[in-house]
Design a protein that fits this description.
By secondary structure, the protein is an alpha/beta fold. It is built from 5 helices and 9 strands, in the order βββββββααβααβα. A 3-stranded mixed β-sheet has the order 1-4-3, with no helix packed on it.
Amino acid sequence: MAKKLKCQWELAVDNREQNPWTFEDIYIGAGKDRRLLEIEVVPTTIKSGDYSIVGMEHLVAIERKSKEDLFGTIGRGRDRLVRGLARLTDLKWAAVIVESEWFDCMKNPPERSEMSVSAIDGSINAWTQRFPGVHWFWRPGRYVSSKVCYKLLQRFYEDNR
């Protein structure tokens, strides 16, 4: 069994997040240096995004989207999403992590989606230009997405503490 390593910072999770990542079973290092990471998750209210670093919520945030949520939000909750992206641009660094690969979203949209894949792709392309400070990441599934979230926040912490 791998030795545990405590994360140097606490991870803030917005308490309105409906299906939050747990950040369990995240390992860092390799071989003999491989360690299970213990991440303290603190439910709180985050003004922008779903995840941040406790004490740095005004600087960094990450928004989580499942494929189904992405399609639904762009369709029915578009204005709210655009306001959220605008708030994220006020931060030093922000991202949206989609729990799906782009190709899968375009080839296999959710069954009940009211939006065409062309409209989804066009909206995201426009937002990458309108909100250049918000980076989009496409990752396969919840585990990989949560690990990318941790790694992005860890990099921000190291560069800005």
